[in-house]
Amino acid sequence: MNRIAIAAANCRNSRQGLLLKAACKASLAGGALLTSLYNQPHIIRMKGKTDLVTEADLAAEAAITASLQEDTPGIALLAEESAKDHTSDHEGQLWIVDPLDGTTNFAHGFPYFAVSIALFDHGRPQVCAIYSPCMDELFYACAGKGAWLNGEPIKVTATCQLIESLIGTGFPYDIPRHLPELISQLKTILLQVRDIRRAGAAALDLAYVACGRLDGFYERELQPWDTAAGWLLVEEAGGRVSDYAGKPFSALAREIVATNSSLHHKLLPLLT
Fold first, then answer.
1. Tens digit of pLDDT per residue, the chain (272 long)?
2. Domain span(s) for CATH 3.40.190.80 in the chain
3. Rounded to an integer, what distance in angstroms lies between the CA atom of residue 194 and that of residue 187?
4. What is the CATH number of domain 3-153?
5. What is the CATH number of domain 162-271?
6. Measured CA distances, 207 to 201, 212, 214, 268 (Å)
């Protein structure tokens, strides 16, 4: 049985299973395209001073969109490179897609990037898939059913002491505006934890929290496609997700804190 069939079976719900199957199929298609372009010269266009897009972002988004529209016709889609308006809640079902999370890594040949896909229904994620092509790792989850990596169940760590934790973070594109806050947080948190990692792909960072490679993750100035799939993965793996104030998370939140639950109340005060 292949990974897509296993994912659908793990959902134990015919409708959820079909949606998860579509998400996994599209993520693998996008990942295969990224793999084919990975070691090629890239066409780079700047969206900001340090925010870039490559031909791979656009090609992967086209492949993912075509796959989702074929398998789930009629469901709206919000994808990073074609998004126009994502500032309000969407009624009904909605695919949220990041065709290449970690574009800067991809462009520099740094093998830490992923495809991220989530299906939302009235503002809550129902199924998701995050695929890491370089590691050939397919993370996926179904609301209320659990989270898996390549067919095996995953769960967050049991770490309950900050000094024993490995915490992930990310930096916004507008570094000058946020630099004082970033430095203050790093100075505070570095003294309280075992170490910090900044790898440059929020969706994959969240997947690493879900499978226990990180004990927590925080970042500000994110977009819905950065967090949509990782949010569900972490919660279904037993973790907790909120904003910096500890309030319930939403796809429109611009900041995220995700932990193994045990560390949540200890990490939050260090961010404010």
1. 588 888 888 888 888 999 999 999 999 999 999 999 998 878 888 777 777 789 999 999 999 999 999 999 999 999 987 765 554 555 789 999 999 999 999 999 999 999 999 999 999 999 999 999 999 999 999 999 999 999 999 999 999 999 999 999 999 888 888 899 999 999 999 999 999 999 999 999 999 999 999 999 999 999 999 999 999 999 999 999 999 999 999 988 999 999 999 999 999 999 98
2. 162-271
3. 13
4. 3.30.540.10
5. 3.40.190.80
6. 10, 9, 9, 20
Count CB atoms within 10 A of the CB of residue 194: 14
Could you write out the three-class secondary structure of 194-249? CEEECCCCHHHHHHHHHCCCCCEEEEECCCHHHHHHHHHHHHHCCCEEECCCCCEC
Distance from C-alpha of 95 to C-alpha of 109, rounded to nearest angstrom: 28
Q: Are 202 and 101 in contact (CB under 8 A)?
A: yes
**Cα 6 from Cα 48, distance rounded (Å):** 41
